[in-house]
Amino acid sequence: MLPMPLWPNLYFPYNEDWKVPSIGECFRLWQKYQMMSHIKGHCLMVARVALTMAKRFAKAGYPIREDLVLSSALLHDIAKSYTICFGGDHAVLGSAWVMQETQNPAIAQAVLAHVIWFFDEGEQAIEKNPCTLPNLISYADKRVQHDRLVPLAGRFEDLLKRYGTSEEKRRLININYEQSQKIENAFIKFGVDVNIEPGQLVRIKQERKR
Fold first, then answer.
1. Are 77 and 94 in contact (CB under 8 A)?
2. What distance in Å separates the CA atoms of residue 170 and residue 172, rounded to the nearest whole number?
């Protein structure tokens, strides 16, 4: 028996030696893992939302490295195409691929937790420290339906229509929705503006054609 619960130190200090892939390197990983074109469009929009929110984090007093935000957002669905074809959990598989490719635990953690934050209690609770990379990527993902900016309610209405094919699946989607609302409310409480209009989204300078 373990002497204590197996809880990792999730809020690890960032190591400046960890590699952060450029946008061009992220695009090459898209090609390597055969990302479908519509998922590329989704990831680009999630990246725009995430970068816009990162600037608002900084304005509220919670700066976060924008290159880390960009690469995490671009890679958050790296395994989606594979799992559509062959099954599996795209967040878990994607985090493993990202760790293998980048050796950056912060990006891998953001990919792993972009669907749901598993450790929402105690010191790891969202309300205690919401302005983190995993919460930012998760929230940005939930504000993008396909490649369009939408409110949380619109995104989850679409998820229920497309994936709510059983009572259990609908239950899990609703749990996810509740957590996303918790993240949004915590951002607001910490002084982060979550009201985004399409014209306010930052643009991404692409290094080369994807």
1. yes
2. 5
Strand partners, 148: 145
- Tell me what pLDDT residue 125 has: 87
Reported pTM: 0.92
> From the centroid of its chain, how far is CA 158?
18
Query: DSSP alpha helices (H): ranges in the chain?
Result: 23-32, 37-59, 66-75, 80-86, 90-102, 105-112, 133-142, 152-163, 167-189
Q: Which residues pair with 145 in a beta bridge?
A: 148
Residue 14 gets which letter from DSSP? P
Whole-number Å distance between alpha carbons of 119 and 132: 13
Q: Give the Å distances, CA to CA, from 61 to 64, 154, 187, 190, 192.
A: 10, 29, 12, 9, 9
Over the stretch 66-84, which tens digit does the pLDDT of each residue have?
999 999 999 999 999 999 9
Structure-token pair, residue 166:
């059983």
CA 11 – CA 109 distance, rounded (Å)? 10
Q: Do residues 117 and 133 make contact, with C-beta atoms less than 8 angstroms apart?
A: no
Average pLDDT over residues 8-30: 85
